[in-house]
Every structure is written in C-alpha cells, then in structure tokens.
Specification:
mainly beta, eight-stranded antiparallel β-barrel
C-alpha cells in the first residue's frame, strides 16, 4: 500500500472516529408533539393604526410524540406579545418560554409568529439542557375564545451532555 493512500485512509478513519465521538457527546435529536396552553394573564391595547397589541402570559405542558424526548411532560411559562389585525389575525408576535422538566432541569426558547411562519429556537438551558442548540416550527391546532391554545411543534436539537 502506498504511503499517501495509508495517510488518506488514516485521516478518514480518524475523521469518522471524531464524528462518532462528537455525535455521542452532541446527542443530535429530532422530535414533535403538542403543547396545550392556558392563559394566566392577557391584555389587549389598541394601537393608533387600529391594530391591537396583545400581551399574554401562557402556562402549558409539552407532550412529545415520543415519550423518550427529554422535555416530554415539561411545564412551560411563556410571556410574549403579538400585533393583531382588526380582524383578529396575528400580524407578528414574539416572546420566550422557560421550560422545567420532571427532574427540575430547565431550558429556554424564543418564539416568533407571523402569518406565514411560526418558528422557535433554544436560547440555553441548565442541567441536562446546558448548551442545548436547535429549533423548529409550530402550527396552531386549536384556539379557543377564552385564550386556551393547542399548538403542534417539531424540531431538531443537539444536547451538549
């Protein structure tokens, strides 16, 4: 075997070992499920252009389609605000959620809503979620006049531990 070929194969083997090792430490994951929210507080403020500023504080429970997802059955507290049209349609909305799982470990996400896209992403965490990265999308499944809300979520993330 030629020396150059041996170096190339060695490089490939070490690269694959490195990737496997980072996969083990990085724990890439995917998931989906629903979150059911109940409003704890909600306020509507009329703006000068006829739209409304809706401030809300929602409490929810995350259900993952796969119960092995680490934040399955986590509690969430989510403050945020949205601009709502006179017809009641969300024009844009922003906020964050703090999640606490059954072990007491925590994670934080940001969220952004618009008429065409609802996205979220991890901002950080503590305990098993320290250094978590990733995000995904959401879609409203059901919305009730009293402010209760059910959304579906999906995404991917990498755990650092």
């Amino acid at each position: 075997m030629r020396f150059g070929t041996l170096i190339g194969i060695s490089f490939l083997v070490f690269t694959l070992i490195g990737l496997s090792s980072s996969e083990l430490h990085g724990q890439a994951m995917r998931g989906s499920g629903t979150v059911t929210y109940v409003p704890d507080a909600m306020e509507m403020v009329e703006l000068s252009d006829g739209t409304m500023l809706q401030r809300s504080y929602l409490r929810g429970v995350v259900l993952a389609s796969d119960p092995s997802v680490p934040f399955h059955l986590s509690a969430q507290d989510c403050p945020g605000s949205s601009i709502v049209s006179a017809e009641g349609q969300v024009i844009s909305g922003y906020g964050y959620c703090e999640g606490t799982d059954r072990d007491g470990d925590m994670w934080w996400i940001w969220w952004k809503n618009s008429p065409t896209e609802n996205t979220w992403g991890f901002m950080g965490g503590r305990g098993k979620y320290a250094g978590i990265e990733g995000g995904g999308t959401t879609a409203v499944q059901s919305q009730y006049p009293d402010g209760r809300l059910v959304i579906s979520w999906n995404g991917s993330w990498r755990m650092k531990r």
